[in-house]
Each structure stands twice: as structure tokens, then as C-alpha cells.
Amino acid sequence: MKRLCVYFCLDFLLLYGACAAENTTFKRIEARVSGAIHHLILRDLNSNGRMDFVVSHTMPVLPNRPARMLSMFVQQNDTLSRSEFEVPLSAVGFDMARPGAEEEIHLILYHSDGLSLHRRHGGTFDTDPVAFIKGRFLMPGPDPWTLMHIPLAHDLDLDGTIELLIQESDRVRIFKKGDTSWVPWKTLGLKPGIRSVPGRGPDLSLMLPKLTVEDFNGDSILDLIFVTADRIDVFFQGRNAADSSIILSPDFSATLEPQDVEAANRENPAPVEIRIVVRDINGDLLPDVILIRSSRGTFARNISQIQLYFNQGGTLNRLPDQIITVDNFSADPLFLSFPEDPHTDLGMPEFSLGLPQFIYFLLTRKVRNALNIHTMTPDGRYTASFQKRFSFTRRVPLADMIAADWCMDAGGDFNGDGLPDLLIGTDIATIRIHPGLPNKTFERRPLHVWSIKSTPRVRVGDWNGDGVSDVLFVYSNEPFGGRLVWKMSRISP
User: In whole angstroms, what is the distance from residue 373 CA to residue 390 CA?
Assistant: First the structure.
């Protein structure tokens, strides 16, 4: 998929569209901008219980002098008001958080020599920082055009006050807020995250490990889980080692090696993309680890793999507890959580460019697609083959068939019945919402169909606090810039 990028302009276009369902409508708010946007985060900027949109974007002012901006879009009576903050070129990353529960939200900028904290003032942020924390920081890459979102602020001990985590080349430094300044609290030893990519060398985008803060060992205390490519490192809070200020190594560490899909592929290896997801899938309240290994095999088959590692009280087996091999698997799996079932089911999208699909396409000009659903059995394992299949056929040009991207989400409830609904699109024609059914599948008649001109990135969530899900479409780079389209759902009596 194309990466998440957004563009904005000063004026807004509000459009309305009626939904096919009897009691559901969607209000459409569209915004445009010229200039490249790198990240979008959601924060409650004015403490009204509603999520606001914050985007980092680059506007070319002079040929060699970009202006990097943060644009804040705050909800006000089902509209958006805008304010801006120009970010100095010395900053390469940002985050936003409230130092304490009763304080205004602060902007945190990540520089090569430290962190600067800027207090919110008058809809934007003060240029002069209220605090500066010096450090020898690991830079994500010397790109003056890019402003990354780096999660720096976390409430690790759940005392209502954030801690700041600064990742350096071989360690993570944690700062606590003191009476007058931010003071060092913990230093964690961590292996450098630079990984090589075949044919490209070191990948700077993998330098900063992804951090998840969850209870990993079941002691009701939050732990720090760092994931880099195929490696996972976990620091437990509350252990004897965690009482010291310097912790040289993780309490648990493992490199999750991808297993061979099949022996025939060893002679003709294809580029492999590996991604780790940390999530509780078997309902025991401990986060499990899912390694997603996607690779293209031959023209006739596109083989991918899901490796499952079930958490066993804060540790993992070195070999996967279960491997699901999937033919013609072309995207990341969907995590399907249905009410009254603690287990998480996996939805595997199937879209093949293999020989059978291609012959069918030449004869019919249609492409067969499906979402194959693997349900977890009571013993906490998935069967090797899928148990349910949500399929559909579409007529597309050959160019669209080759370049199609999947656009999927199953975490929203758009009609208020408590069941997850499936949002799915596979081409540049339509995106559909199919209501969830109690039998762990989806209604074939869509709740709503949107016509689109290109495949967007999608985020689903309830951002206006009305109890039903909204959709955010992010179009990265259209001919006249980028767009963010907010579909605000409403259920009438």
C-alpha cells in the first residue's frame, strides 16, 4: 500500500451523502492542501473528549528551503478549525502529550541534540520551549523534507504523569518530570536497530524500534516491548533489575526467524517482507506475537505465511507455536474480534495474479477475490485451512488488476449493533462497508458503497464521541495535491 500521507488547504468543502441503510447517514468533510504530508496523529487538543487531527507536512517555499508545518484541525460543532505551527529544520520528529492530567497539551520536538517541549498557546504552540532535555540521540535520517511522528511520551507507571523515552544508538533513556525540570529515571540497554535490506543496504526507517507498552508477563504492571524487524526485546517493570537506574539488557529477547514456506522456494528465493504484530489473540489477556511473512513465489502462486507465538507468562517459544501458510495472500491479515468470544479470528485477503486467476481473467475480464476467515478453535489454535469465505467478483481493466491495492478494516461498528463491520476495497472503483453477522461473517449486501478515484489509506474510529465509527480516507498524492476525507457516521432514530 501507499504510505500514509495527507495534504491540506485553508478552505474546507463540506458535502453530505446518504447511506443505503435506513437509519445511517454519513456527513462528509473534505480538506485539501498543497505540499507533502508525512504523518497524521489524533489528539484531543482542547480537552472536549473528541479527537482532533494533527498532520505534519512540508510546503516548498524556495527550491532548497522547505517549510515544515504542523497543522492542527480541531472539531467545533461538526466542523474543523485550523491552526499552524512552523517546525524548525533542526527537528526530525514530534509527538504531543499532556505532561500531567490537568495540564495543557505540549508539543515535543526531537532534535539531534535533545528534546524541546512547547506549551500550547492560543490554538498553536509557543516558539520558545518551556523545557529542553539534552541527549545524544539516534537520528532517523538527515532528510530536511520529512518530519516523523515518534512516540516519545508514555505514562509507564500509570500515575497520571508522562515519562519521555529517548532512543539513542545503543540505549533508551527515560526521563521523569521533577519539581522544576525533567530528570533521568532509567537507562535501558538495547541493540542497535539498523537492519540491512537485500539490494539496498541499511534501512534507516528501521533504526527506531517500535515500542508497545503492555503487561507482557501478567503481573498487572506495564512492560516495555520493543520490536525491530524480526526481533523482540521486553523490559519488565517490577523485577529486581528494574529497580536500578541502569538496565543493561532486556528481561526477554528473541529473534523470530521466518520458517521456509516450502522447499521448492529455496532455489528461487523472492524478496521477503517481515512484520511483527503484538496483540492478544487467544483471550488470555497476555499479548501474543504474530510474524507476518509475505513473499511472491512463482507466476502461478503467491505464497505467504503467518507465524504465531503464544505468550506463556512472559516468554515465547523459539519456534512458532503455529504456522499458517496461505496461497495467493496479498496483504496483511485482518484481526476479527466478535462479541462473546475472547478469541481473535484472522481474515486473510486473497487476490492472485497466478496462472488460474489470469486465465479466468482473460476469458471473463473479471477477477475473483475473497476474504478467507480462519476462526480460532476452543483449544487456542487455528485450523490450517479457512473455515469461512467472504467472496466477490469484480470486472476491472488489466492495468487495475496488476496495480490493485487492498483497502481493509474490520474494527468499526457503523450501524450500532455491536458487531464488527467490514470495510473493504480492492481497486480504484469502490469501497464497501459490509455489516457483521452473528455467525462470524458479513452481510453480502453492503451498508454503503463509496466511489473513489484512487486507493486511499484508511483509518476507522469514533472521533466525535457519538458511539458509532467514522472513516478517515487519506489520499497521498493526487494531481492537485492530497486529500483527507472524513466520513462522519450518524444513526437516526
Answer: 8
The angle subtended at Cα 222 by Cα 221 and Cα 224, nearest 5°, is: 140
Return all residues near 43 (Cβ < 8 A) that are at least 6 apart: 51, 52, 54, 96, 105
pLDDT band at 144 (very low <50, low <70, confident <90, very high): low
Per-residue burial over 321-338, b = 16 or more CB atoms within 10 Å of its CB, e = otherwise: bebbebbbbbbbbbbbbb
Confirm if 432 and 449 have CB atoms less than 8 A apart: yes
- Can you list the alpha helix ranges (DSSP code H) found in 349-425? 355-364, 398-403
User: How far is residue 242's CA from residue 244's CA, in Å, rounded to a whole number?
Assistant: 5
Is 45 in contact with 52 (CB distance < 8 Å)?
yes
Q: How does pLDDT run across 71-113, given as a tens digit for each residue?
A: 898 988 888 888 889 999 888 889 999 998 788 999 999 988 8
User: Is 264 in a helix, a strand, or coil?
Assistant: helix
Q: Cα(432)–Cα(424) distance, rounded to whole angstroms?
A: 5
Do residues 442 and 421 lie in contact, with contact meaning Cβ atoms separated by under 8 Å?
Answer: yes
How many residues make up the chain in this entry?
493
Cell 494531481 belongs to 479
Q: How far apart are CA 350 and CA 125, in angstroms?
A: 46
pTM value is 0.83
Determine the 3-state secondary structure of 266 from DSSP: helix
Give the list of residues 6+ apart from residue 199 with CB closer than 8 angstroms, or none: none
The radius of gyration of the chain from alpha carbons, rounded to an integer in Å, stands at 23
Q: Is 462 helix (H, G, I), strand (E, B) or coil?
A: coil
Grid cell locating 27? 456527513
